[in-house]
Amino acid sequence: MVALPTGAIVSELGDFLRAKRAAASVESLPFPSSGRRRVPGLRRDEVAMLAGVSVDYYTRLEQGREQSPSAQVLDALAHALDLNVHERRYAYGLAQIAWVPELAETAQPVDATLARLMDGWPGAACFVLDPLLDVVAANQLATALFRPFTATRNLVEMVFLDPEGRRFYADWERAAAGCVANLRATSGLYAGTARREELLDRLTTGSPDFAELWAAHEVEPKTHDEKVLRHPDVGELTITFDAFEVSAMPGHQLVVYRAEPASTGEQAFRTLAQGSTPVTEPVPVADSVPVARTT
Questions:
Q1: Most buried among 47, 123, 172, 273, by the most CB within 10 A?
Q2: 225 secondary structure, DSSP code
Q3: Is the pLDDT of residue 247 over 90?
Q4: Best CA proximity match to 20, nearest among 73, 72, 95, 84
């Protein structure tokens, strides 16, 4: 893809800001506004005041005369114009700045639409990982699959700190290396945060194997692979997995475990599904993964 000249990109950012200013609601202003409005939406001085920048600076941004808005300025304008997550990412792209989404201090639940999608695949074990590989939701089959683990708060802790990890993954070394490489690829969103440092401290203190793999700095996100799992209730089963980015939740991945049709793995999944008890209320994430439910 051919890169546009810098000036053209910033001018496109100005067009975007003007459009969003025109669409913004006057009623949302946290201060009184008076005077006749010639056009819909907010005035430039109102946006500048909300964002904490000068009117002259904001005007130059809209006109494309300002060539280097900072991430802090863009974030402030996103708040002022009440941009959604997709609009924020788009604005950062126009300004050629790496976008880092606002991050929650605790794992966030998935929305009802994604929960329904996961429930709509009864023959697949589906779960959602956040950027620190906390398991924030799972469908009923995934919950049954992970039942041997003491806790299912975080996938990396399951692999390295739970004794079941080495029994559950037939090729534990490969699974462990892939898990750490995936954590490297996604957890950068939380670089420097207390939540990430606390997780890494638990892992490096509790597992020399994790500490060694983390120090290797391998980076590879989950995409598609095959695993052999050992479950105490159904024995050994081979699954393929695919991981998909959840666009509405930046940094989150929907992971889908499937077995080949008519295979022993598919039969094992059926047995697990038949033997699992529906959960009416999700268990807190701190102890175990909540079952994805529609509301």
A1: 47
A2: E
A3: no
A4: 84
CB count within 10 Å of CB 160 equals 24
How many alpha carbons fall within 13 Å on the CB side of residue 285? 18
Please tell me the distance from the alpha carbon of residue 2 to that of residue 57, in angstroms, as a whole number: 29
User: Structural domain boundaries of the chain?
Assistant: 6-94, 112-275
- Neighbouring residues of 121: CB distance < 8 A, sequence distance ≥ 6: 139, 256
Phi, psi (rounded to 5 degrees) for 228: -110, 125
**Nearest Cα residue to 201 out of 150, 251, 157:** 157
Give the strand pairing for 253-258 and 235-245. antiparallel
CA distance 115 to 69: 38
* Per-residue model confidence as pLDDT tens digits over 172-181: 999 999 999 9
pTM of the model: 0.73
**What is the CB-side half-sphere exposure of residue 48 using CA atoms within 13 A?**
13
Please indicate whether residue 242 or residue 276 has the higher confidence score (pLDDT): 242
Query: Domain 6-94 falls in which CATH fold?
Result: 434 Repressor (Amino-terminal Domain) (1.10.260)
96-132 pLDDT tens trace = 887 777 666 777 788 888 999 999 988 999 999 999 9
pLDDT at 227: 93
Yes or no: say if 121 and 128 are a contact pair by the CB < 8 Å rule. Answer: no
Length in residues, the chain = 295
Distance CA 239, CA 255 (A): 12
